[in-house]
Amino acid sequence: MKLFFILITFVFGQSVSDLGTIRAHFKVANSSKEKANAFYDLFSEEPSSSALVEAYRGAAITLKAKNSNDLLHKKKYATEGLTLLEKSISKEPKNVEMRLIRLSIQEHAPKILKYSSNIQEDREMIVAGYKKESKAVQELIKDYSLQSKVFTDSDKQTF
User: Cβ–Cβ contacts within 10 Å for residue 27, how many?
Assistant: First the structure.
């Protein structure tokens, strides 16, 4: 029985720390090609059972597109990453953290992609749900909002 509790603690503790690592890499992934690649490298080829982790994977693949020099690879990565992100959000449409991930991608997406239709909706959901989120997610939202042009000064005071 003791072994069972140790195993459960290890498994759940591991996934939480992994999520912390993913969030930390996500915060800085857009700052350089090297950091984007490090974020991408966090994810194995096997899909996760967590829609949230898959949303982060979609963001990492999308950043891979941004940093690719080959036009065909850019299109492939962008399509794959955005599809994965949207699929994850469709599984948990009220997940504030996933909405932040999408908002950050849409805010920085090239206009040619025409991928910006959810910015306002996501911003509103993030602001409305902020206080219900964990401290880690609140910190992620606050940090992102400080450099974002999407959030108003009033929104930033909420955070």
Answer: 16
